[in-house]
Amino acid sequence: MKPTTVPERLAVNNFRVDEDESHIVVDQELCRTTGSGAAIIAVCPAGVYSEQDGLILVDHAACLECGTCLAVAAPGALTWRYPRGGFGVSFREG
Amino acid sequence: MTSDAVEPDFDFDVVVVGAGIAGSVTAYRLAEHGLSVVLIERGDVPGSKNLSGGVLYGRVLETVFPDYLNEAPVERRITRHVTTFLNADSAVSLDYRADGLAEPVNAVTVLRAKFDPWLAGKAEEAGAFLMPGVRVDSLLTGPGLDGATTVVGVRAGDDELRARVVVAADGVNSFLAGSVGLRQKQPTNHLAVGVKAVIRLPRADIESRFGVSGDRGAAHAIVGDCTLGIGGGGFIYTNTESLSLGVVLRLDDLLRSGHTAIEVFEHFTQHPGLQQYLRGGELIEYGSHLVAEGGYPMVGEVAMNGMLLAGESAGLAINSGLTVRGMDLAIGSAIAASDAIVEAVAAGDTSKAGLAGYRRRLEESFVMQDMRTYARAPKFLERNRMYGPYGELIADVLQNAFSLDGTPREHLLTVARHALKRSPLALRQLISDGWAGVRAL
Q: Would you state the pLDDT for residue B8?
């Protein structure tokens, strides 16, 4: 199959982005001191997290809602919940 | 008991959270028994938030829906299981084909966004009230007669729904179970991330590439270089006119590797050894799912006053190395949960003691028996030699056996001994892994 980038792969999905609130909030300080920032960047299949000038950036619109980031983050470093009802990714295949 | 008999302080007999496989089967069976049931789903339609690799070992579903193979949108009936040690430039496969896998049907591929609406529809037809597009935010709790916390309903936004029993079928991340201390944060060696794509491929190509025809299909499990040696594996499953493919990566090993899940997934999809299956496929979806594969030790308490956990929210999943199972265990737990709830409601006792029939039924059924049988599998699969050196060792032996270059042949045992000497593996490790494998699987 043809090589694809993460944005190209996400572009074929169906998303309804919640513009009013993000379901993901990072604690920059804890992300840095616990190493959680590097861990959530490594495991997220959607590239939701990136680092710029020592800060973790979050693109909640790309989230595939698997929860893997929460599983590797230290307690308190990441607040992650499901998007509000009706928002987020909508799988057509699954 | 009918909905007319519900006491005024309860809106329903049972609130089921999550219209996945565990939730919908539970709701269906409760409604069939005449209980009033609401099935709450955060997706706009059931299945829209749900994702699995795609193989359903569906014999247990036949006990609930005897004709599901003809009624439900299943993709293909799996009659061929191929397990491949894939190296950078060689591959060794174990190819199991059997007519017995087709009659009776042992496993089918499913696409959850298509399958789950059918299942939730069965629950609705039976009388369950489906409430889609609603995220449950928290549990309503109060003190029980025994002094311990009792779940009395759920809260979604400003709305509260009260019920005798809440079934948390809200998946592997179960925030509901976590909120009352039924589930603790799991160690990363008990968890894996599944990264999956669905690619469209013409039916004729699927049949010729995978050696199947009609409604038959193949399931390929792949280990080795395809995950860059990271604990876990890859999969390719045939659907009717698409393939489900991806990798499952153990989180502790992924973090240790220095690679990202994205890099490993892209390495897998571009692996030269797999292009014979994947070439020309058009990407139609990209998704991921957290897999709880810690096995039996991951299953903790599954009941408390007024609440049961079903499916993945109870930690029910098995990775045996050859098969990854979750959906059949979800169905098994749904059967046990619904029977226990019917019994508890009839007896007027939905406390933890009243719901004890759930655990008992789980233990008696294939669900916990299989969880115990494979209890050693996670530890065995943590032996990382599985994901690199073994495939190379076997390929080395076979290369010597098959590549007749004019030099005199040696006995296979001698060849194997030499290959083992070249490999980073020690005979001691081989024996240890072999024995552990037999015991674990």
A: 55
B286 found inside a domain? yes
Q: How confident is the model at residue A50 (pLDDT cuts 50, 70, 90)?
A: very high
Measured between CB atoms, which of A3, A45, A75 is closest to B195? Answer: A45
- pTM higher than 0.90 for the full model? yes
What is the chain B residue with the closest CA to A36?
B255
Mean pLDDT throughout B320-325?
A: 80
Largest CA distance in chain B: 88
Nearest CA in chain B to A43: B261
CA nearest to A75 within chain B: B185
Kindly determine whether residue A67 and residue B173, on different chains, have CB atoms separated by under 8 Å: yes
pLDDT at B25: 98
Of A13, A47, A67, the CB nearest to B262: A47
Residue B8's identity, in one-letter code, is P
Q: Residue B7 — pLDDT band, cuts 50, 70, 90?
A: low
Q: How many angstroms away from the CA of A41 is the closest CA of chain B?
A: 7
Is residue B53 located within the same domain as residue B181? yes
Is B403 inside any structural domain?
yes
| Residue A45 pLDDT | 98
- At which residue do the structure tokens 């299953």 appear? B299
Choose which CATH entry (3.40.50.150, 3.30.70.20, 1.10.645.10, 3.30.460.10) describes domain A35-82. Answer: 3.30.70.20
pLDDT at B295 exceeding the cut of 90: no
Residue spans of the domains in chain A: they are: 35-82
What is the interface pTM, i.e. ipTM, of the complex?
Answer: 0.98
As for how many domains chain B has, the answer is 3
Using the 3D structure, point to which of B321, B342, B375 is the last residue of a domain.
B375
Task: Judge whether A71 and B290 are in contact, CB under 8 Å.
Answer: yes
Q: Which residues of A touch B186 (CB under 8 A)?
A: 71
- Residues in B closer than 8 angstroms to A71, CB to CB, are 185-186, 188, 191, 251, 290
A35 to chain B, any CB pair closer than 8 A? The answer is no
> Residue B243 is part of a domain; what is its CATH number?
3.30.9.90
Same domain, B175 and B285: no
Average confidence score pLDDT of chain B? 91
Residue type, B40: I
Q: For residue B279, what are the domain limits?
A: 191-292
Residue B5 predicted with pLDDT over 60 = no
**Residue B88 lies inside a defined structural domain of this protein:** no
